[in-house]
Amino acid sequence: MIALHGVEKSFRDGDREHPVLRGVDLRVAAGELVAIVGQSGSGKSTLLHVAGGLDRDYRGAVEIAGTPLAGLSARELARLRNATIGFVFQSFNLLPGLSALENVMLPGMLRDDTGEPPGAVRTRAADALVKVGLAARASAPPARLSGGERQRVAIARALFARPRVLLADEPTGNLDAATGDEIIRMFVELAASGLSVLVVTHEERVSRAASRVLMLRDGRLAESDAATAAGERGAGRLA
Amino acid sequence: MSARGLLWIARARIRADRRGALLDAAAACAGAAALVFFLALGMGVGNAARRMFPSDARLVEVVPSSVSLGGLLGGDALDDRALRRLEALPGVEAAWPRVILQVPIAAPEAPPGMASSWPPGMTLQIPVVGIAPAMVRADLEDGHAFEDPPPGKPIPVVLSRRLVEVYDKTIAPSWNLPRLPPGLTLLGLQMPVEIGRSIVPGKQEQKVYASKVRLAAFSERVPMYMMAIPLETARRLHAEYGKDGRFSQVTLLARRPDDVPAIAAAVRQMGFNVDEGERAAAERIGAIIAVTTGALAFLAVVMCVLAALAIARSLSASVRGRSKEIAVLQALGATPSDVHRVVLLEGAMIGLAGGVLGTLVAFGLSFAADRAALGLLPDFPFRPETFFAFPAWLPVLGVIVPAVAAVLGALAPAAAAARVEPARTLT
Fold this sequence. Notes:
Shape of chain A: globular
Largest sheet of chain B: 11 strands, mixed
Strand content of chain B: 5-15%
Helix content of chain B: 40-55%
Number of strands of chain B: 11
Strand order of the largest sheet of chain A: 6-7-8-3-9-10
Structural class of chain B: alpha+beta
Order of helices and strands of chain A: EEEHEEHEHHHEHEHEEH
Number of helices of chain B: 12
Radius of gyration of chain A: 18 Å
Oligomer: heterodimer
Radius of gyration of chain B: 33 Å
Number of strands of chain A: 10
Strand content of chain A: 25-35%
Largest sheet of chain A: 6 strands, mixed
Order of helices and strands of chain B: HHEHHEEEEEHEEEHEHEHHHHH
Distance between the termini of chain A: 34 Å
Strand order of the largest sheet of chain B: 4-3-7-8-6-9-5-2-10-1-11
């Protein structure tokens, strides 16, 4: 479960403060896929970073899987990100020096409390690649993978630690329509399996697949039906 | 993050930027190679110099003053009374008198079985010094005594260890004589001599008689071109031929090297001189070698510092170029401290690899230099088998110094990496 209560966040530009989030309340239950839409620069990614504990400079309260982020040390927060939260990014953000398999292994190698041997980490990573249909591409470096393959590797990496929360920032933004649909189907299935999935997107097809669509405008979240959201997104793109 | 994870990620990072890592490791390798090579060369040459000019830091050589002020200072004659006063000086553990034998001794023929090493018709005039047996006691092997012999028995003698080397490398080739076979034990060798005989006109004594000397030991404490006999034998011969019985020199053994300056000062106050000829030469040579080695080692350390700067520059550029990767690592569960340690570990691994490689290169270069030197240089006395010395700590130093330099070079980039803000970078 993801819960944000009265989250406020602003950026400072010299002496001026630009509020981005103005008292955002959000709750994403387990098994729910929530899409957040809004214009470019409306603060969608900022919201995602606050929810994922990547940005700690905010006011308000955030809970992930029942754990309040306020008061956690850097190490505790890192452990929470490692074990409970999965991230998927628009530009995949795979490490170029690692193979597809090694990229998936990363969360396992970053953990310091499991004592899981590298062999076991490797096996689990290989299983994760099988689940996203990329077993045959395990040894390929990211540069030799297509966009869709890279995003599937990124999803396998996000799911490696069996997280309870999945945060995705424009996950289909760099993919063609068919591959994007494939990724959206995966997200729907993941939500159905019990994950809390929060997706920030411009894409109408993502919001169509979501259980709920929320619009971020003027720093506030509002429930939005798909048509309204689509209209707003269109306005956003035109702008 | 566990050490295993840190190592895994650092290794992966290095693999991703092989070219940069190779260049940095090459810089560290050059520094390590120079450091190990120059230090090994300095120590090797130092060892050779010590063989050539052995010097004991605890010895003080006392000789009579060239200007006699004896009456005023109570010094000038090195006799038994002076010996007792010297023995009583603070810091002196032992005092060993010696006397230059004024009775000539000559060898008219070769020792038995060594005629081939003796030019036909040669009579060898032997400079002889009488020394206190305690001075060479440590050099005596079991079964070889060094004391005044009973009448009719051979006189035990001690020769300079360096004399054998000089014979083999200089005397034998120039006189076209065979060299001493390796491993030949000369101890116990007897040689007929004539006491009182001199090949110098006017120096021969009235009384000349045949005797024998027997080699009892080799020692660094015997002057190179002299034959040492027991002090009592020398004094007996002096008494027999009516010569002056005073000592020509007294060697003082200090308890600690630190006591030497005070002892030397006290000796001078007593009106005697301190002969620093050999010691000064050894110290000068030692100082020249130490300064040269130090300068070359400093140069090598500068190279390591330059390698560290190269690594710092390269890692800084690398950190700037992969800030997104660093942000991703943090998103996946790395703390800023983990990121800091990963970059430091990258530096350490590059430095270690360069250090190991550089140390191996230094070994190879020293081997090649030895081969070249031994092939090019003529065979001279004390020519070492190797010009390099590799004590166990040197390879360790060769690996650790570049690794530490690399870690120091990685400090700033690591701090920069730890400051990467994932929220800002991933936007």
